[in-house]
Amino acid sequence: MGKNNMNLLEVKNLNVTLDKEKIIDNLSFNVKPGEILTILGPNGAGKSVLLRTLLGFIPYEGTVTWNKKPRIGYLPQGLSQLRLKDLPLTVMDLFALKDSQPKIQEVKEAIKRVGLETRILNKTAGHLSGGQFQRMLVAWVLISHPDVLFLDEPMSGIDIGGGETIYSLLDSLQEKEQITIFLVTHDLNIVYQHSTNVLCLSRKSHHCFGAPKKIINKEMLEEIFGAEVKLYEHH
Protein backbone atom coordinates (compact mmCIF):
# COMPACT_ATOMS: atom_id res chain seq x y z
CA MET A 1 0.00 0.00 0.00
CA GLY A 2 1.11 3.56 -0.67
CA LYS A 3 3.99 2.75 -3.02
CA ASN A 4 3.95 6.20 -4.62
CA ASN A 5 6.67 8.38 -3.07
CA MET A 6 4.86 11.65 -3.76
CA ASN A 7 2.38 12.84 -1.15
CA LEU A 8 -1.23 13.20 -2.24
CA LEU A 9 -2.01 15.39 0.78
CA GLU A 10 0.29 17.50 2.95
CA VAL A 11 -1.03 19.11 6.13
CA LYS A 12 1.27 21.47 8.05
CA ASN A 13 0.62 23.34 11.31
CA LEU A 14 -3.15 23.00 10.98
CA ASN A 15 -5.21 24.94 13.53
CA VAL A 16 -9.00 24.96 13.72
CA THR A 17 -11.02 27.08 16.15
CA LEU A 18 -14.81 26.81 16.44
CA ASP A 19 -16.88 29.06 18.74
CA LYS A 20 -13.62 30.34 20.28
CA GLU A 21 -12.60 26.80 21.22
CA LYS A 22 -9.40 25.31 19.81
CA ILE A 23 -10.38 21.98 18.25
CA ILE A 24 -7.22 21.15 16.27
CA ASP A 25 -3.86 22.47 17.43
CA ASN A 26 -0.75 22.59 15.24
CA LEU A 27 -1.37 19.30 13.45
CA SER A 28 0.93 18.05 10.68
CA PHE A 29 0.78 14.81 8.65
CA ASN A 30 0.83 13.56 5.07
CA VAL A 31 -0.90 10.89 3.00
CA LYS A 32 0.35 9.15 -0.13
CA PRO A 33 -1.87 7.85 -2.95
CA GLY A 34 -3.39 4.46 -2.18
CA GLU A 35 -2.87 4.63 1.57
CA ILE A 36 -5.46 4.00 4.27
CA LEU A 37 -5.20 6.63 7.02
CA THR A 38 -7.15 5.80 10.16
CA ILE A 39 -8.05 8.70 12.44
CA LEU A 40 -8.32 7.54 16.04
CA GLY A 41 -9.39 9.30 19.21
CA PRO A 42 -12.15 9.82 21.79
CA ASN A 43 -15.41 11.67 21.15
CA GLY A 44 -14.82 15.41 20.98
CA ALA A 45 -11.20 15.11 19.85
CA GLY A 46 -11.90 16.70 16.45
CA LYS A 47 -11.94 13.68 14.13
CA SER A 48 -15.04 14.70 12.18
CA VAL A 49 -13.93 18.34 12.26
CA LEU A 50 -10.64 17.30 10.65
CA LEU A 51 -12.43 15.51 7.80
CA ARG A 52 -14.71 18.48 7.18
CA THR A 53 -11.70 20.82 7.26
CA LEU A 54 -9.87 18.73 4.66
CA LEU A 55 -13.02 18.86 2.53
CA GLY A 56 -12.96 22.67 2.68
CA PHE A 57 -16.11 23.04 4.80
CA ILE A 58 -14.43 24.69 7.83
CA PRO A 59 -12.01 27.66 7.95
CA TYR A 60 -8.54 26.99 9.31
CA GLU A 61 -5.02 28.34 9.79
CA GLY A 62 -1.99 26.51 8.43
CA THR A 63 -1.63 24.74 5.10
CA VAL A 64 -3.65 21.94 3.49
CA THR A 65 -2.14 21.01 0.13
CA TRP A 66 -3.63 18.50 -2.29
CA ASN A 67 -0.84 17.88 -4.80
CA LYS A 68 -3.34 16.45 -7.26
CA LYS A 69 -6.93 17.61 -6.98
CA PRO A 70 -8.78 14.34 -6.31
CA ARG A 71 -12.42 13.39 -6.73
CA ILE A 72 -13.60 12.80 -3.17
CA GLY A 73 -16.43 10.59 -1.94
CA TYR A 74 -17.68 11.40 1.58
CA LEU A 75 -19.84 9.34 3.95
CA PRO A 76 -20.61 11.49 7.01
CA GLN A 77 -21.25 10.05 10.45
CA GLY A 78 -24.69 8.87 11.52
CA LEU A 79 -26.18 7.61 8.25
CA SER A 80 -28.36 4.60 8.98
CA GLN A 81 -31.35 2.79 7.61
CA LEU A 82 -33.35 3.91 10.66
CA ARG A 83 -33.44 7.47 9.31
CA LEU A 84 -35.14 6.21 6.15
CA LYS A 85 -37.37 3.61 7.79
CA ASP A 86 -40.62 5.52 7.28
CA LEU A 87 -39.80 6.80 3.79
CA PRO A 88 -40.95 4.80 0.73
CA LEU A 89 -37.58 5.18 -1.03
CA THR A 90 -36.09 2.20 -2.82
CA VAL A 91 -32.34 1.74 -3.21
CA MET A 92 -32.69 2.79 -6.86
CA ASP A 93 -34.53 5.96 -5.76
CA LEU A 94 -31.53 6.91 -3.62
CA PHE A 95 -29.14 6.52 -6.56
CA ALA A 96 -31.49 8.62 -8.71
CA LEU A 97 -31.07 11.48 -6.18
CA LYS A 98 -27.39 11.88 -7.09
CA ASP A 99 -26.53 15.02 -9.06
CA SER A 100 -25.12 13.01 -11.94
CA GLN A 101 -28.21 10.73 -12.14
CA PRO A 102 -26.36 7.51 -13.05
CA LYS A 103 -27.69 5.08 -15.61
CA ILE A 104 -29.28 1.85 -14.42
CA GLN A 105 -26.34 -0.21 -15.72
CA GLU A 106 -23.88 1.96 -13.76
CA VAL A 107 -25.94 1.44 -10.62
CA LYS A 108 -26.03 -2.32 -11.13
CA GLU A 109 -22.26 -2.41 -11.59
CA ALA A 110 -21.70 -0.35 -8.41
CA ILE A 111 -24.00 -2.65 -6.44
CA LYS A 112 -22.18 -5.75 -7.69
CA ARG A 113 -18.85 -4.11 -6.87
CA VAL A 114 -19.69 -4.08 -3.16
CA GLY A 115 -20.92 -7.67 -3.13
CA LEU A 116 -24.68 -7.06 -3.28
CA GLU A 117 -27.19 -8.60 -5.68
CA THR A 118 -28.91 -6.25 -8.12
CA ARG A 119 -32.38 -7.30 -6.94
CA ILE A 120 -31.72 -5.16 -3.86
CA LEU A 121 -32.34 -2.07 -6.03
CA ASN A 122 -36.08 -2.62 -5.74
CA LYS A 123 -36.05 -3.00 -1.96
CA THR A 124 -37.02 -0.17 0.40
CA ALA A 125 -33.73 1.34 1.61
CA GLY A 126 -34.94 1.75 5.18
CA HIS A 127 -35.68 -1.96 5.48
CA LEU A 128 -32.22 -3.24 4.54
CA SER A 129 -30.06 -4.90 7.17
CA GLY A 130 -27.34 -2.74 8.69
CA GLY A 131 -24.60 -4.46 6.69
CA GLN A 132 -26.55 -4.22 3.42
CA PHE A 133 -27.24 -0.54 4.05
CA GLN A 134 -23.58 0.28 4.66
CA ARG A 135 -22.53 -1.60 1.53
CA MET A 136 -25.19 0.27 -0.43
CA LEU A 137 -23.79 3.57 0.88
CA VAL A 138 -20.29 2.60 -0.24
CA ALA A 139 -21.69 1.80 -3.69
CA TRP A 140 -23.54 5.15 -3.67
CA VAL A 141 -20.22 6.93 -3.14
CA LEU A 142 -18.19 4.74 -5.51
CA ILE A 143 -20.51 5.33 -8.46
CA SER A 144 -18.99 8.82 -8.82
CA HIS A 145 -15.54 7.17 -9.33
CA PRO A 146 -13.73 8.96 -6.46
CA ASP A 147 -9.97 8.83 -6.01
CA VAL A 148 -10.37 9.37 -2.26
CA LEU A 149 -12.95 8.08 0.23
CA PHE A 150 -13.73 9.92 3.48
CA LEU A 151 -15.54 7.53 5.85
CA ASP A 152 -16.63 8.86 9.25
CA GLU A 153 -17.33 5.87 11.51
CA PRO A 154 -19.04 3.89 8.74
CA MET A 155 -19.77 0.92 11.01
CA SER A 156 -21.49 2.78 13.84
CA GLY A 157 -24.35 0.59 15.05
CA ILE A 158 -23.42 -2.38 12.82
CA ASP A 159 -22.65 -5.83 14.26
CA ILE A 160 -18.98 -6.82 14.25
CA GLY A 161 -19.51 -9.54 11.61
CA GLY A 162 -20.92 -6.99 9.18
CA GLY A 163 -18.18 -4.56 10.13
CA GLU A 164 -15.40 -6.99 9.32
CA THR A 165 -17.00 -7.62 5.92
CA ILE A 166 -17.18 -3.92 5.10
CA TYR A 167 -13.58 -3.28 6.08
CA SER A 168 -12.44 -6.24 4.01
CA LEU A 169 -14.39 -4.72 1.10
CA LEU A 170 -12.57 -1.40 1.57
CA ASP A 171 -9.25 -3.23 1.72
CA SER A 172 -10.07 -4.96 -1.56
CA LEU A 173 -11.00 -1.67 -3.23
CA GLN A 174 -7.77 -0.10 -2.03
CA GLU A 175 -5.67 -2.99 -3.31
CA LYS A 176 -7.37 -3.29 -6.72
CA GLU A 177 -7.96 0.37 -7.52
CA GLN A 178 -5.50 2.23 -5.28
CA ILE A 179 -8.27 4.36 -3.79
CA THR A 180 -6.96 6.48 -0.91
CA ILE A 181 -9.09 6.07 2.22
CA PHE A 182 -9.49 8.35 5.24
CA LEU A 183 -11.23 6.34 7.94
CA VAL A 184 -12.53 7.44 11.35
CA THR A 185 -13.07 4.49 13.71
CA HIS A 186 -12.77 3.48 17.36
CA ASP A 187 -11.97 -0.14 16.53
CA LEU A 188 -8.31 -0.90 17.30
CA ASN A 189 -8.54 -4.28 15.59
CA ILE A 190 -9.49 -2.50 12.36
CA VAL A 191 -6.64 -0.01 12.87
CA TYR A 192 -4.08 -2.83 12.97
CA GLN A 193 -5.54 -4.85 10.11
CA HIS A 194 -6.45 -2.20 7.57
CA SER A 195 -4.31 0.92 8.11
CA THR A 196 -1.19 2.18 6.41
CA ASN A 197 -0.85 4.91 9.04
CA VAL A 198 -2.85 6.03 12.05
CA LEU A 199 -3.40 9.63 13.15
CA CYS A 200 -4.23 9.94 16.86
CA LEU A 201 -6.11 12.95 18.22
CA SER A 202 -7.06 13.78 21.79
CA ARG A 203 -8.98 16.52 23.59
CA LYS A 204 -5.69 17.81 25.06
CA SER A 205 -4.23 18.67 21.64
CA HIS A 206 -1.89 15.69 21.84
CA HIS A 207 -1.49 13.84 18.58
CA CYS A 208 0.71 11.20 16.99
CA PHE A 209 1.13 9.89 13.47
CA GLY A 210 2.74 6.78 12.04
CA ALA A 211 2.38 3.08 11.27
CA PRO A 212 0.07 1.34 13.79
CA LYS A 213 2.59 -1.22 15.03
CA LYS A 214 5.16 1.50 15.65
CA ILE A 215 3.09 4.03 17.57
CA ILE A 216 0.15 2.20 19.20
CA ASN A 217 0.97 1.06 22.72
CA LYS A 218 -0.70 1.10 26.14
CA GLU A 219 0.90 4.40 27.20
CA MET A 220 -0.07 6.19 24.00
CA LEU A 221 -3.67 4.98 24.18
CA GLU A 222 -4.01 6.09 27.80
CA GLU A 223 -2.67 9.51 26.88
CA ILE A 224 -5.03 9.80 23.89
CA PHE A 225 -8.17 8.43 25.55
CA GLY A 226 -7.45 9.74 29.04
CA ALA A 227 -8.19 6.44 30.80
CA GLU A 228 -6.56 3.12 31.58
CA VAL A 229 -6.80 0.72 28.64
CA LYS A 230 -6.08 -2.95 28.10
CA LEU A 231 -4.06 -3.71 25.00
CA TYR A 232 -3.81 -7.31 23.82
CA GLU A 233 -0.99 -8.43 21.56
CA HIS A 234 -2.08 -8.45 17.91
CA HIS A 235 -1.05 -11.38 15.74
Question: Please, could you describe this protein's structure?
Answer:
This protein is α/β, with parallel strands linked by helices. Helix content is 31%, strand content 23%. It has helices spanning 47-54, 91-96, 104-113, 130-142, 160-177, 188-194, 212-215, 218-225; strands at residues 9-18, 21-31, 36-40, 61-66, 72-75, 148-152, 180-184, 197-201, 207-210. The strands form two sheets. It has a six-stranded mixed beta sheet with strand order 5-6-7-3-8-9, with helices on both faces. A three-stranded antiparallel beta sheet has the order 2-1-4, covered by helices on one side. The longest helix is centred in the C-terminal third of the chain and has 18 residues, at 160-177. It is globular.
> Helix fraction?
25-40%
Number of DSSP strands? Answer: 9
- Count of individual helical segments: 8
Walk across the major sheet and give the strand order: 5-6-7-3-8-9
Spatial gap, N to C terminus:
19 Å
Tell me the overall shape. globular
Computed over alpha carbons, the radius of gyration is: 18 Å
The sequence of SSEs as H and E is EEEHEEHHHEHEHEEHH
Mean pLDDT: 83
Largest sheet: 6 strands, mixed
